[in-house]
Amino acid sequence: MKNVFLLSILLLFAVACSKDEPTAPPADEAAATEEMVVEEAPEADAVEEGAEETIEVVEESAAEADAEDEAIVLAVADTQAEAPTTWKYKEGEHYTRMVPTQPTVGGADKVEVAEFFWYGCPHCFDAEAYINDWSDEKPANSRLVKMPIVWNPLAQLHARLFFTAEVLVRNGKIDDGRAFHQAVFQEYHRRGNQMATEGAIAALFSRFGVSEGDFESTWGSFEVDQKLRVANDLMRRYKINSVPTVVVNGKYRTSATEVGSYPGLIELIDELIVRESIR
Fold it and tell me: How far apart are CA 15 and CA 106, in angstroms?
């Protein structure tokens, strides 16, 4: 039993950074273990403006409606036929089901996979390649959302960095968002730059061709502030106590700690997407 206990501790060290000590791997098993008592989360502090969608009502003939209904029935039947009779991963052992199901960033049109991370976490750095490879070939009915944690002042600074880059990529000020994201990890873990000040972060953006004006106007913008509020709200709702942690569709929370490896985590993500797809 002693050897099994020591092996469990080493495994936790290998795959997660804890909330209590984000600058280093957890000092004991309890520090990296997620809270398993599920409580009803508080209401969100803020909601993205402009989230309401206008639904266009389209009239169709009875014949068209019948044809569409038949197609839907056939599609559902095909999906259910392909569903496995048994599941490899088990609730309570490999993942936690959150009750009630929590909100997601995007709409219900796709199964959302949210990865919570911190640039200073070496395990998040290691997981990045696996997450990116999965994202390149992810199921068509899924989407990946990267979500920085905001546990402490440095993590909050890095979260603002992430969302500033996200807005600049969308506005065409940064050509390759993934390359920039990877460069931030490299900056922290390979170049020894913790990016602990706004000036150090501005210098990094400058290296990627972002002007001082574009950086400053985006860094302090309402949009970035709102994204930070959403990140903080989701982090509390999902009970994120270690990173990297993955939440599938606001319902299933897991990490490589529960599964035992990053390839296993990717396999579990795909299985949970199938679960959500055959509802």
Answer: 28
pLDDT of the residue at 16: 75
Cα angle, residue 223 at apex, residues 218 and 228 outer, rounded to 5°: 100
Kindly report whether the peptide bond that precedes residue 244 is cis, defined as omega within 30 degrees of 0: yes
Distance from C-alpha of 161 to C-alpha of 257, rounded to nearest angstrom: 27
| Candidates 3.30.1490.190, 2.40.10.120, 3.40.640.10, 3.40.30.10; CATH matching 91-277 | 3.40.30.10
CA distance 157 to 250: 25
Q: Which helix (H) or strand (E) holds 96?
A: strand 96-97
Which tokens belong to 197?
């000040």
Measured between alpha carbons, how far is 101 from 143 in angstroms, rounded to an integer?
Answer: 18
H/E stretch holding 28:
none
In angstroms, the CA 265 to CA 254 distance is: 8
Q: Domain residues of the chain, as ranges? A: 91-277
Which of 244, 238, 264, 211 lies closest to 96 in space, CA to CA?
238
Pairing outcome for strands 142-148 and 111-117: parallel
pLDDT of residue 101: 96
Can you tell me whether residue 161 is helix, strand or coil? Answer: helix
Residues of the chain with pLDDT under 50: 2, 4-13, 22, 24-81
Residues 6+ apart with CB under 8 A from 166: 177, 227
Helix (H, G, I), strand (E, B) or coil at 251: coil
β-pair partners for 243:
17
Note the pLDDT of residue 157.
98
At 17 the pLDDT is 85
